[in-house]
Amino acid sequence: MNRIYPLTFKPIIKDKIWGGTRLRTVLNKECKTDKAGESWEISGFPGSVSRVKNGFLAGNTLEELIEVYMGDLVGDGIFDTFGTLFPLLIKFIDANDILSVQVHPDNKLAKQYFNSYGKTEIWYVLDAAEDSEIIVGFNRKVDREAFMRHLNAKTLLSVLNSEKTRKGDVFFLPPGRIHSIGSGILLVEIQQTSDATLRIYDFDRLDEKGKQRELHLDKAMEAIDFEVYKDYKTAYETTANQFNLIRKCGYFTLNYAELDKPLIKDYYELDSFVIYICLEGKLDIVYYDGDKESLRKGETILIPAVIPEVKLVPEGRACFLEVFVEGDSVTDQMDRIIEKLF
Hints:
Layout: E1 12-20, H1 22-25, E2 36-42, E3 44-45, E4 48-49, H2 62-69, H3 71-74, H4 76-82, E5 88-95, E6 101-103, H5 107-114, E7 121-128, E8 133-138, H6 144-152, E9 160-164, E10 170-173, E11 179-181, E12 185-192, E13 198-201, H7 217-223, E14 243-248, E15 253-259, E16 263-266, E17 274-280, E18 282-287, E19 291-296, E20 300-303, E21 309-314, E22 318-324, H8 330-339
Antiparallel strand pairs: 1-2, 2-5, 3-4, 5-12, 6-13, 7-10, 7-12, 8-9, 8-11, 14-15, 15-22, 16-21, 17-20, 17-22, 18-19, 18-21
């Protein structure tokens, strides 16, 4: 069997009522309409599984590759837990209009209502129009009754927290955290492999058939975390020529890197695939005995777990995100007990 190599995939473009043109104009995606809202870069989600674009494995699906390469591709522990389901979904999102106010369920509720995993996610803002905002969490303490009063009176936004948003901002969204992406924002989303979304308020907007989209209020009320938190925006370092931790949780670790000189990255002790998402510039990824793949702005690549080391060579300056799955905390183990129910 030929050795597996860093994999790029054909983006899966999803038109959305709130989508726009920046997936095409900024990130060079092949979009057929002016309502392209999402580019699924790496996906194992049933019905939207990514296909390889490069090398001798071109045309094969991610699921087929996991079935063949197992732990060599994703990591032994990940394969033991998830089988042929890839555990993360990587997207670019272009919000030309505001998204609905929504919430995601945890693993337990998602199993009950969707027969799927829950949805923990994180956003990295690639670009934001002046005065653009992201809705995340509450700005004051409200109970369920007050929440419904505001919703029925169309004053819900008055109790939701809005954050002025600019390039480089990061928002971590655990299950239960109410949220919405405002208009004029282009971002990267890293999430559990799940499409479990509970829509709460859609600004009375109509779809292409002239109908209001379905809301999921009863289920959403079970999922919402009504607590008020101090910091909704994630702070992180941006020191050049090293990997800077943005956020680690039970489902993924996200790092930021900005390189202007070559760097060797060692993955010998990491039992996981690694994903790079290029934010700016161009980056060569050298592996094995000098083989090379290139990554440009708006592109994503999957480094198989069996590759122990890569040399990262920027062309001038390159900025990118690094994503992988690591380690078991007590919380992770409890989550996986729930996940084994699947």
